[in-house]
Fold this sequence. Notes:
CATH superfamily of the largest domain in chain C: Histidine kinase-like ATPase, C-terminal domain
Oligomer: heterotrimer
Order of helices and strands of chain A: HHHHHHHHH
CATH class of the largest domain in chain C: Alpha Beta
Radius of gyration of chain A: 75 Å
CATH architecture of the largest domain in chain C: 2-Layer Sandwich
Strand content of chain C: 15-25%
Strand content of chain A: under 5%
CATH topology of the largest domain in chain C: Heat Shock Protein 90
Shape of chain C: globular
Strand order of the largest sheet of chain C: 14-18-19-17-16-15
Amino acid sequence: MKGPLSFSPSVLSHTASWPRWWLWAVVGMTVSLSWTVPFIPWWVGLGSGLCAVLTLTILAFYARKQYEEKPLEGEEVLDGHDAKQVLDQVDALMSPSKDIEQIPQVDEVLQNMAADNQRRRLEDLMRRWVDVAQRYSEAALVLRKDIYSVIKQTEQAANTIANSFEAVINKSTIQARQAMELLEGTQGATSDGAPQSLKDFIQVSDERLNKMADEVVRVADLSVNMVRELDGVQSRTQAIDGFLLDVEKLADQTSLLALNADIEAARVGEHGRGFSVVASEVRRLSKRSHEFSDRIRVHLKEVRTGLSKTYGNMRMLSAADMEHALQIKEDVVSLTRSLEDKNREVAETVSCINEISKEIAQDVRNVVVSLQFHDITSQKLSGMLEPMDDLRRSLYHLMQETINLDKSLLKNLPNNERWLSRMRDDHAPEPVTKPMKNAVQKPRTVHQATDNGPAVELF
Amino acid sequence: MATILTVDDTASMRQMISFTLHSVGHEVIQASDGKEALKVLEGKKVDLVIADINMPNMDGITLLKSLRALADYKFTPILMLTTESQDAKRQQGKVAGATGWIVKPFNPEQLLTVVKKVLG
Amino acid sequence: MAIDMRQFHQTFFEESLEGLTVMEAELLHLERAACASGQDTVYADSEILNTIFRSAHSIKGGSSTFGFGDVAAFAHVLESRLDALRDRRSQPSQRVVGLLLLSVDCLRSLIVAAKTGKEADRNAIEAVRVQLEKLESENTALPVTGKTPTQVEALTTTHWHILFRPNPRMFHTGNDPLRILRELAGLGKLKTTADVSGLPSWEQLNPEECYLSWNVELVGSTAREAVADVFSWVLDDCCLEIAPKTMLAPTLSQRTVAEAVAFMDTNAGTLRVNVPKIDGLINTVGELVITQTMLSQIATNFSFDNLSRLFAGIAQLERNTRELQESVMRIRMLPLSFAFNRLPRLVHDMSQKLGKKVELIVHGEQTEIDKTVIDRLIDPLLHLVRNCLGHGIEPPAERIAAGKPETGIIELKAYQKGGNVAIEIRDDGRGMQHERIFAKAVERGLISAEAKLSPEEISEMIFLPGFSTAETVTDVSGRGVGMDIVRNNIRSLGGSVEIASQPGRGTCFIVRLPLTLAILDGLSVQVGIHTYILPLVSIVESVRIRPEQVSRPAGGAELYGLRKEYLPLLRLYELFRIEPRSADLTQGLLVIVEADGKKAGLYVDDLLGQQQVVIKSLATHYRKVEGISAATILGDGSVAMILDVTGLIRLAHSGAGHSVSNGSDAPPATVAASAAAPTIN
């Protein structure tokens, strides 16, 4: 129940007058002692005097300590301070003057303490604030440089990729075209009808070979016919031979007849002379026909020999021809077939190449889209820089304002000036740099010295 | 086929556009910003202009306005390249007389369709 | 744990219904944008679509968790449609937005059904769901690569009628209508008719401008988006209309909608409060504690030196308590947007039904007013707006003939004025048709044919009971119709309704409401030995009585001439049968009060002062006494009656000011008061 209101005056008077009452007690004691001096020895007086003084001092000391240490009952916690602090504060405020009227009231004291507290907190805040701003500034600088370098690097990479890509595409196009030409060269025909392509060639050869084979077959056929004819001839000669025999027989018979006639003639005598002439003529005729038939026979023989020779050749030839012709035909057919197979393979390869070209086209499209990444990322990155710079600028301004805060807040504390100037010196913030676009033109390496500040002018 | 001018400060972007347009047989002229574009156009006539918006020296919108002021290019189709987030710029472009816009990154097929659409 | 779940259910229902309100508002937003730009397609802001999607999504989740199967199923369909819409970032057409609005209605009725156990209209809901599902197949049936022939077959032939009217300056952007038409030709069979009516004569022809427009018929199997795509670059530079030859979506039964909506309003059990308000409350309470501490401190060590500090402390306490009171009151205050949130939907539905084009503009919906007021304000407000739609705004043809823009405007303006909140409902329609009202009133026998009434009085007549409007629009809420009920409702809230109208120009209804029903700013007056409270809002002025201004025409009533008007003079002591301090009019004061456009003068002995009083209702204890609205307890513990100004004025005008002798229903107000003093606490 002893509130600070009632508390402070007595305490103050207590503390203020501690030396006082002690002094008074000492004086009083001395006076009273001095009265007894004549009655007691001087050393008794002095001794007792000293003892008394000592006791009083101790008592006073003890009493004061008690006062100080006794927990104050019913003390309210005001604004988070206890009475001790209030007392200290009042003490501090009171030292310049001892006038009771000028002793501040509790609420004033509290207000001062609150203000103090606020001041302290404010200082703390300001210090932390400047710290943070400083750290951000530094980090922002580093970040900005990194961003520059990223942009530059991506630009280089993008250009390289784009160039290489274009080159690759060109070359692959050329290759494809050449392959196509090569392949197509085997497919088409020229205007003058002469076979230019493999296909045409195959076709024409096929035709010609077929024709030839057919010719050969025809020849063989002819030969066979001829043999048959020869056979016919042979049999005719044989028939002629037969006739010849008959003729000889006839001639023989005729000569016999003639002999008979002669005989008869002889018999007859003179009358038969005509007869014998006839008979001798007949005899001569038959002899002549014998001769003729002999001659014919000789010819026939020759013919026959010739025939059979021819016959034999023919035979041989026709047989050989037929076989040959058939063989040739077979060869031609198989050659044609293998040529056609080759042709088909070629056509398949051509269509394969076409397919791949289409796929390549799609891949090309994808790459074209992706290669635009540099543009987009660099725009986005540059976009990042502006808000960063804005923030930095704002922080800078805020820091300035903080430093230049209303000094009246801080004026009561004598160390403030020192702290303020110290802060200003230690934490002078970095100047903020100009916006980025122009700076990109200068090439930058990845690691930049950060201590000396950026190479661009003050914003 | 047609002669097309492409304006962009990023080399890879210009390369991609030229490459795509070349593949169908268009002729492509390149410029790296608005100023260069105007210089390049002196004495030449192009059938279509494709321009980026963010460029140094002279940006896309300014280039657009300058082109529309020239008698030769009053009715030439001019396409703007924009990123998705630049809606406001798109509006500006429209007001300044852009024919249409292409969103980055562009798909080459789309680009060819749009070019065909515009050149008829 | 049935009880536990019920709590959760309650929260789920509230949240879902709120979510549905949000969805509805956003959908109307979309549609309004479409209406405003005059085009049929809507460029959906992706954020709007996201918001709508999220609401549907959470409703689906919640209903599924709590086992409301049919709600979940429907919400699922709706959510997947919305997902498709927002993924494609496509442009939902007006038809789709209409269908989505219907779906919101369905969901609402399903949720109401789940909550109240009543069945919802299954058939209608099923129909809407089928439509929703058809929507999906329609939208995804566009063949992109042509590789799936089945999908192509699924798409029916479409027939689009396109009106393309380029701006004259179209060429200047490098766009060429010719190539646009050529592109269209690639989509299907094209039949074009050019409209050359815009061509000027040769001398005026500027070759750099476009004067032509085209009507195009496109038959093919293209979706609307493909058609709109062709024009995507020139949308701002031309007038474009793309119309199909298909029909509109069906409407859900209005009753189910009404029920669901009605249900939403009576959910008065809980209150949503802004967190900052609670924070403010906590702060205020904290300061109160500090002040109290300080005071008790002063009190324990009281000495006369501290008197000034004591007074300061008490002043501080008073400040804190007042702040606390205000904070608490503010908690109960909700922005008027809660009352306005159903209006866009109403306007949308009704305008479509009536074939009128109406735009709703709302100002000041963030003005706050007590929750109880809002709950009871919604119906009268709806009715007033319905009135404007039905009678005020003319059909488009009539509007154009009158030289007005085709789209009518209904403007709601809410603002705080003094201790009141005023809501103005203004339309730019044809205004009050005085002759018709007069004729109808005569027809109903409410007045005689010869009565001479000023235009204001004629307008006021629509508030008379029995004056229901003949052209009843479809009964959306099923509750009372008739302006008289509107006025009664508003009056029961302690407010008033006025009409101002100009023929041909429009009508304006002004609704005035007190900020809260619980606390009143009042003026305490002395009548005899008793104190009465007059609501400050009703008081116009107070004057010293000049005897020469008092006149007593036949009939016994007294009139006081104030400036140019004559007001009935009501002697309160006579009315309440109290002994006045002095019956001489010059000794006391005349307090001029106003309500519903009528004024009266109340004779009191003295004015005591202005104070805020807490209204304590008498209704639970006593029958209604004419002239008394409620009671309050004054600082010294005595009871004071709060006067009902409207009732008093009515009494005054009807000449019953002399004494309430006709009645068992009027025991002297004082006796009642004193008898009730112990119990009213």
